[in-house]
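EI: anyone free to look at a 593-residue chain?
SC: sure, send it
EI:
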Amino acid sequence: MFRSHLLVPLLLSLLLAAGRDVTGEGVDRKPNFVLMMVDDLGIGDVGCYGNDTIRTPNIDRLASEGVKLTQHIAAAPLCTPSRAAFVTGRYAVRSGMGSIGRAQVLLFLGGSGGLPSSETTFAKRLQQQGYTTGLVGKWHLGVNCERRGDHCHHPNQHGFSYFYGLPFTLFNDCVPGEGSDILTDLQYMLRNLTMLLGVGLFTLVCVRVCGLFDVSLWLLVALSFVSILGAAVWYMPFKLLPTWNCIIMRNQEVIEQPMTVETLPQRLLGEAQNFIKRNADRPFLLFFSLAHIHTPLFKTPAFAGKSRHGRYGDNIEEVDWMIGKMVETVDSLGLSNNTLMYFTSDHGGHLEDSNTLIGQKGGWNSIYKGGKAMGGWEGGIRVPGIFRWPGRLAAGRVVDEPTSLMDLYPTVKYLAQDTHPDRPLDGYNLMPLLEGKVERSEHEFMFHYCGIYLNAVRWHPPGSDSIFKIHFFTPNFSPPGAGGCYDTKVCQCHGQHVTHHNPPLLYDLFHDPSESRPLTPDTEPRFAEILEETAKAVKRHQSTLTDSDSHAKTPAHGTPSQLTWEKILWRPWLQPCCGTFPFCGCKEDSTHI
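SC: here you go
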């Protein structure tokens, strides 16, 4: 017989259970995602990856409470193509985001290149599954196509419900006295040409006024026009770069132009934290794309002079503090057991970036050869990869298998229970590997691009610990034998800038992770087999690069490029602007800071 005194506790229990379901704490609620990406971070800059002189306790704790990947690979050694591959789960060449020449990333916010609207990002997939999606920080995948305000490449058009941050990137031009990053040789040429025209015009005017020679008035008018045109071509795109490129947007509105760099870290962190707080009761995905540690380096007073590695070390320790604040926000809201947190970098550190005033400004890539923009060398593509999900992922697990930034797309799609048909992907769901249900990565082969050019291939043969990597060509270091392209600061992928190898250079990363001892037929019995199997894999891979994958032309396989000069160069009618163009200028409302 049912006892009446048990009725009230029973009803309360049922109400509490219903309440948990409503507030999203039930077992059926889809997980949240907090994806944190640093810009230009070297894998050797983090304590849990071997650094013992820069303090990164919060990132180290993230690894100790979760899973650390030791062979986590970016699809490209530069920002734009790497980030395109990250958000789409596909090699950048498929979306036309691989370069064919010198310009390897987007250089002007007023260009027409960017991630095509036909591409699908993980944010768009999750948005269709009922997620609230946000991007705080760096985008660098384009804004407009044909007119100012069409926002065809904008994050809002690629599945991010909310965007706050840099539609371009942080670069030296944004801070007075830090120099310029954009086509400096072209800038100098145009400046000198403008000065030469000006001097020539002034001389001819003096000659005419003094009556020394009979100088045609029409010649002076024509030369005046050319001089004004030359000055405009130099001054408008280049001298006003801080105004054109260094801006902050909230969704599709420019709210600061040019941006105040000094307060940027605090604002980005605050926006990321507030996004989590606003959406704590519903499934959300946040891509927190930090502006650190791309140059110019920040000078935040709380961290300035505190590290043992100058301003660069100060910036790493500030990054660590920001990561700690993000974890603290998730934990304080009781979301940790239902939130997958991820930490990585878009590619390796920039070895060539330094000056005599503050020393090294780029990262340390540990034992790995090369760095940012150096093709398929490990130092430019091997990045930190840390996953934390208490209750779902075992604490302290280490995975040494090859994995990719492109794996995030299928992983979040799987966890969000998205089973709808999709395009061919180059990434794989990581959960079986992260949870220890399988020991081997699904990446038997991985393809490493330098621009649109297939630079190297990695092969992890079944039943073997070896991870072979062959390089078809390598960037020419300057001077020869040095560790980078120090004369240009960014290595090139074509023509006289590279050396082709026949037979290809071959390394076994399991025994030689620093790629310092090339294998030969005499030292590796499987030499011929490795080249043969790799060639077959390349042929299979290239057969998948069809016209249906993208919409612009490349020489190799008919896939169009978004990084041609036609699409990259600045166009006034595409320039985002607050106010009336060209008189752009505004400051973010201080109540939002």
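EI: Residues 184-210 form the longest helix (27 residues).
SC: 👍
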